[in-house]
Amino acid sequence: MNEKHYCPSCGENVDTTVIDRGRRKDLCCVFCGFPIDVAHPQQFSAQRGIFIVDDSKLLVQMINDYFIKNELSKKIILAYDGGSFITQYVQQLRAGEQIDLVILDIVMPVLSGINAAIAMRAIETAFSKERSPILFFSSKRADDQLLAAMKFCAPAHYICKGEPENTDDLCERMYKVANNLLVESQSIKEETPSEETDNRDNSRL
After folding, report:
1. Which residue ranges does the record assign to the Response regulatory domain (predicted)?
2. Each residue of 118-151: pLDDT tens digit?
């Protein structure tokens, strides 16, 4: 029987499996796929901004303060329901801005986090913008519905809130998972030829 390891995403000790990613093999959580031995210890600095969306204003402010203190981003935009997030997200894209990360609570008034994420992807397509990574925020471990949403909305991941009174641990876990998602997304972006480059190359054929 495999030894259990602590998963920052799930917030508990979990069974693990080895996932072959081509260039490397990662020891990952069997539930969410998060790499237990995070392969990217370097800190990502989100220069273009981060959205934090949750109906708990106190929790949003705590995460905001933690991220600013640890220099994950100098620009953080706050929203307290899915509807106001979509409105602000459209405003950002209309202004020519790109967001590095969106943290979305799943259970919210007006529009749920999953529905807001689906709408967000449609909006990005309409504006011909690259996909901003999404970090779903759940009060429980990821179920089939959330895993399907993560796959559809990729790049995306999730973090379990865990015990409500343990906010310091939550902020630390969220920072670790968000940082890993940002670094992974940036690595994939750098390795994937842009559409403009592909078109240039094809014109030479």
Report:
1. 49-176
2. 999 999 999 999 999 999 998 888 888 898 999 9
173, two tokens: 């876990």
Q: Say what the pTM is.
A: 0.85
Nearest to 124 by CA among 151, 97, 150: 97
Topology adopted by domain 43-203:
Rossmann fold (3.40.50)
Q: Which residues pair with 159 in a beta bridge?
A: 137
- State the Rg of the chain over Cα: 17
Quote the distance between the C-alpha of residue 94 and its chain's center.
22
Q: Where in the chain is the domain with CATH 3.40.50.2300?
A: 43-203
